[in-house]
Amino acid sequence: MTSTADLMDFDKALELFEPVLGFEVHVELNTKTKMFSPAPNPAAPGADASEPNTMVTPVCLGLPGSLPVVNEQAIRFSISLGLALGCEIAPTSRFARKNYFYPDLAKNYQISQYDEPIAHDGLVEVELANGKTFRIEIERAHMEEDAGKLTHVGGATGRIQGADYSLVDYNRAGVPLVEIVTKMITGAEHDAPELAKAYVSAIRDIVVALGISEARMERGNLRCDANISLSPRGSGELGTRTETKNVNSLRSVERAIRYEIQRQAAILAAGGAIIQETRHWHEDSGTTSAGRPKSDADDYRYFPEPDLLPVEPSRALIEELRSALPEPPAVRRRRLKESWGFTDLEFQDVLNSGLLVEVESTVAAGASPAQARKWWTGEIARLANVAAVDPSSLVSPADVAALVALVESGELTDRLARQVLEGVIAGEGSPSEVVEKRGLKVVSDDGALIAAIDEALASQPDVLEKIRDGKVQAAGAVIGAVMKAMHGQADAARVRELVLERATTP
Amino acid sequence: MSGHGAVSGDSLISLSASVLAERLHSGELSSVEVTQAHLDRIAEVDGDIHAFLHVSADALKTAAEVDGARRLGAKLSPLAGVPVAIKDVLCTQDMPSTAGSRILEGWIPPYDATVVAKLRKARLIPLGKTNMDEFAMGSSTEHSAFGPTHNPWDLERIPGGSGGGSAAAVAAFEAPLALGSDTGGSIRQPAAVTGTVGMKPTYGGVSRYGAIALASSLDQVGPVTRTVLDAALLHDVIGGHDEHDSTSLTDAWPSFADAARAGAASGSLTGVRVGVVKELGGEGFQAGVSARFAEALDLMASAGAEIVEVSAPSFRYAIAAYYLILPAEASSNLAKFDSVRFGLRVNPPGGGTVEDVMAATREVGFGPEVKRRIILGTYALSAGYYDAYYGSAQKVRTLIQRDFDSAFSRADVLVSPAAPTTAFKLGEKLEDPLAMYLNDVTTIPANLAGVPGMGLPMGLAPEDGLPTGIQIMAPAHEDARIYTVGATLEALLEQSWGRTLISQAPGHPSMPLPDERAARLEGGTR
């Protein structure tokens, strides 16, 4: 373990070095069956893969004579993902065999795509909390099959070293994966850790919007290998990179990048050299430890998979999938911000609260964007925070829109509306039903108000004098008394109007 | 082998599958009788031939079920009730499937190969599994981990390979039908040297699912029989698209049996352009083989065929390309034999890592020819060598396909000897891999191009009295053309001989063994 590793202060590290990043994100597709066999896919919605080696066919086990057959749904999903990443879809792509011996790999080769991936040259726009946007170039997205899972028994660490024996579960073998590989990312500087998190989050948003993966990082549906190297400032030379694996939450992505920058900087500053290797992220200690040395010279003896035909999607299929694409998250955000007329700060407020969908739906249900934002990020978020639940679980956008409509028509004051909201959340019905049941309507009968005003003025002659002398702010005391008399169910602005009118009426 | 001569001439086992099928259909014979006769024959001669690695314990039971179904009036397929031998490269869920390798000794797959499932569906009777060179690597069946198969024409000689077991089983009347697999000639070359008929279909014409892979882009399963019509009938059963094999074709295939019957009935080759491939003959071919081939051409010409000479210059690189592509694919296909999930496991002394166990298992489990090709293939795919070896070989493959295209623009079928020599002696080429590889010189081009090819008997070589074979090739998808031309040629040849070639086999049930040969067999190699 590397708990003893020296770390350099992050800011200091950034002073000396420029971080260069690269990501390989693996997305498990949620197709019904596996990539190359009719076995049920453990990454499908609701699948239960808890019993080892139950979701297997001769193909998953690499039994002699078995042959792979490509899952067409996985192809469609991969094309959709490629398109959503802004990639070109190759008219012809090919599967290849990546040959290496490892017991979790049933055939001792992995069917992957090598020099002819299905999608290439894309672009993902990533927005940070501070409003900065980065354009991350995608080199390629290719299809491949997952390997099985090894459990090492008897060792202290659960790692293969020191284990007495290992168990293999092939349920995961053959799960369809798309691996998304970025080009080298420079210029992230201090934002590098946050950028890493934002990138993975953007990929997650995309696959969720497409509905092609369960996208649960803690379950391995989405896995990020983070490549990082440090380049001494001004040297123009690339450093040796490490590849950090086993990073299975958004928070860890950020932490792991920060840690590797600090670790590598300390080694380099002390005159040491970075070893090109995989690093294992340890969630509990927040550190990485050395994995397997990785060399560019690793020879996987790739060659075209002779058991499969090239993938040649028709133009029509690609266009069909393109037309069915959801709006790209970045484009959608831009569009909404513009149409709502929000300031950067207002819009960021919505984004950071994770309430974009709720506000959008509330606006769609007829509320003004400003009111929708005010209610969701204000009172509803506050109540949700108190109850420790998601705001969206408290109230529907339709009810919020109805509430806003009641306020805007003058039927409710903001204060009354908050009471109505509480009623809606308590399950008393729709806003208008709650208004009815609780009798919370604004008193808009001027006669009742005038009577109350005259009574208040009469009991406070000094105030009346002041108003008549032009000290209009003195009216506040009368307004307060009237509102109290009306149990708050009056429109304060109208009361003010009437107070001034009555006071100045001879 | 003294039993050979004791069987009467109209013995059941001397009948072709098509005749057996007719008699089964008419009720003249029962499947149990037919199956029992072949089991008896196996018991009688297979100790000497060693065509079988495993004989089914269920054959009679299956036969009785077919008889029962027939009695009840079930509509049965043409070959229902006819026994069939299955090359051990094909997965059978009721019998061990070893591909001739120690590493799979005793392994019973949990599933049937698609072709085996089709045999069962058509209610043929699986008799057992036939011997082969380990993982189909060889041309003599001497590379089987379980001992060689002997050629029924001369027990001191090889039956060809890799499918020597299937060819010998059919030639020795142990089975009327067999399945083989052909990666570079493993169906056609054994047919040539045992006087039988073997067909390698168009690549993709028959499913490879459940055929233990040697070289995926070259392997093709096909029939091994004693007559062209029988091959066509069996091809009709096993052919067609299989959703489990992505490389399987979706063609709507015609009836090959009809094609064969039409050829046999016509007796004429008028209008058929027969291309003689210049590069697949001449130097290096046994004189008797060349002589019989010339006679076969004359016979075809006299039946109206137009004989044209065609040149395929790239064919000279075929063996070199083949021995890069095949080992490359095989090195990857054979990686799965690692002791983790099935088959042999050898624990190195003192234990060790999983890599140590894998290495020890593969060291013990694979024979020398398999190791040779894994090493070759691993090298050919290595970074820095890929382009020079595998890449160049694939380019040669394209050139060979072009040569075929050009040849087929001038000829309807192409012909050549199916093997350069008659059967050689056991052990003769075992220590000389290159000499062994040259046995497939005429058959390899068809695999590289994916075109269909058939080997069928063309007479006995005068110098040694052993069978020779002619190869007929057609463009991809045109398998039916081979059956038509093949059946015509078969009829013409048998007419000229006045009998079938196989009836001259020393082990033929109607043909007592010559004394001197019987004597030799008594003291022969085992």
Automatic annotation (TrEMBL), chain A:
Instruction: Please name the GO terms of the biological process aspect recorded for this protein, alphabetically.
Output: glutaminyl-tRNAGln biosynthesis via transamidation; translation
Query: What UniProt keywords apply to this chain's record, in alphabetical order?
Result: ATP-binding, Ligase, Nucleotide-binding, Protein biosynthesis, Transferase
Query: Kind of enzyme, top EC level?
Result: ligase
User: Which Enzyme Commission numbers does its entry carry?
Assistant: 6.3.5.-
Its recorded reaction(s) are: L-glutamyl-tRNA(Gln) + L-glutamine + ATP + H2O = L-glutaminyl-tRNA(Gln) + L-glutamate + ADP + phosphate + H(+); L-aspartyl-tRNA(Asn) + L-glutamine + ATP + H2O = L-asparaginyl-tRNA(Asn) + L-glutamate + ADP + phosphate + 2 H(+)
Query: Which residues does UniProt assign to the signal peptide?
Result: none
Q: Does the keyword Acetylation apply?
A: no
The record's listing under Pfam families reads:
GatB_N, GatB_Yqey
UniProt xrefs under Gene3D superfamilies: 1.10.10.410
Q: Which GO terms describe its molecular function?
A: asparaginyl-tRNA synthase (glutamine-hydrolyzing) activity; ATP binding; glutaminyl-tRNA synthase (glutamine-hydrolyzing) activity; transferase activity
Q: What does this protein do?
A: Allows the formation of correctly charged Asn-tRNA(Asn) or Gln-tRNA(Gln) through the transamidation of misacylated Asp-tRNA(Asn) or Glu-tRNA(Gln) in organisms which lack either or both of asparaginyl-tRNA or glutaminyl-tRNA synthetases. The reaction takes place in the presence of glutamine and ATP through an activated phospho-Asp-tRNA(Asn) or phospho-Glu-tRNA(Gln).
PANTHER family per UniProt: GLUTAMYL-TRNA GLN AMIDOTRANSFERASE SUBUNIT B MITOCHONDRIAL AND PROKARYOTIC PET112-RELATED, GLUTAMYL-TRNA(GLN) AMIDOTRANSFERASE SUBUNIT B, MITOCHONDRIAL
Q: Provide the assembly information.
A: Heterotrimer of A, B and C subunits.
UniProt record similarity statement: Belongs to the GatB/GatE family. GatB subfamily.
- What is the protein named? Aspartyl/glutamyl-tRNA(Asn/Gln) amidotransferase subunit B
What organism is listed for this UniProt entry? Answer: Terrimesophilobacter mesophilus
Q: Which gene encodes it?
A: gatB
